[in-house]
Design a protein that fits this description.
Mean pLDDT: 84
Largest sheet: 2 strands, antiparallel
Strand order of the largest sheet: 1-6
Helix content: 10-25%
Low-confidence stretches: none
Number of strands: 6
Length: about 90
């Protein structure tokens, strides 16, 4: 089973607000934007036109790779308000 098949077999509880926050001014000064490629769930997407970091927190796997990898220490990560609620869809 590949990673996409495994991820599609899970259901996550989504909180009403993001548990991930970034300061877009800091993101603008960041040259490598490693969060956009280090995250296995592709939570972070840089919008060049608007110069903002789109954070799709509902896709977060809560692995913490983004917080560790951010050279600017610009990702505030807290536990989601919905809690960690992974459930298998088929069980």
């Amino acid at each position: 089973m590949n990673i996409n098949e495994k991820l599609s077999a899970l259901k996550y509880n989504k909180g009403e607000k993001s548990h991930l926050t970034v300061d877009n001014d800091v993101c603008m000064r960041c040259k490598d934007k490693c969060c956009t490629y280090i995250c296995p769930a592709e939570v972070y997407q840089w919008n060049k036109e608007k110069c903002i970091m789109n954070v799709r927190y509902e896709n977060c796997l809560e692995c913490g790779a983004c917080k560790i990898a951010c050279s600017k220490k610009n990702i505030a990560w807290v536990y989601p308000d919905a809690g960690f609620g992974v459930k298998f869809k088929n069980g």
